[in-house]
Amino acid sequence: MLGAGLLAAAGLPATRAAxxxxxxxxxxxxxxxxxxxxxxxxxxxxxxxGDSHNGSALMVASSSNHNHxxxxxxxxxxxxxxxxxxxxxxxxxxxxxxxxxxxxSSWPSWEVSGDFQAPSAKGTWPAFWLTGVNSWPPExxxxxxxxxxxxxxxxxxxxxxxxxxxxxxxxxxxxxxxYRAVLKKSGSSNVQIQYFIDGVLKGTHTGAGFVGQxxxxxxxxxxxGSSGSPGPTTTTYFRARNLYLARSSS
Length: 250
Known about the structure:
mainly beta; Jelly Rolls; 7-stranded antiparallel beta sheet; 17 strands; 5% helix; ConA-like_dom_sf
């Protein structure tokens, strides 16, 4: 055991040889909707893989075209408009975070949240979700409305190799509601995911093999597909504010 003099020489408190390492929290996305320049420093337009995914909407937004991804007063608006051509029925907007979510030993805890006004009419398919960078699965859907006023919190895959789904009826999805997920490392390979809506825990799932798998965070306004068809014949909107992403070392 080191004496007080040796402890001092080593730069350690005289009362103990080593101090516990405090938990570190890093806020990765906050205030990103203040301006287009701030937004574009944290988010990319379209999907990580291109301009379409499963539904009937083609994503057309860019840094020079804000007709379908726009900012105003700290609110992000994704706009879908009817369109017929090239096999698509709509033009719409989707964005994804430049920061990937990676649950591992260095950062075993993550929090993802945002306030959303979500459309829920037949044919509208808004989502706030995580999906694998290098492979699929993993997937975690924090917000997903599929043509009705029921939010789907989904995880694929669970320890049985299947989907876990928590279905929550939402009174007036078009009003502001807060959707949040807390991801925590559970053992060597699994991740526990808690889904909250307006501060109330709605479901706890296990993501099997999620540890060490980087994931994209996507805000997606797709159309038809799993939400049914035909979809709306007029312009519709999916809005977000107070977007938040943070990770912790404990």
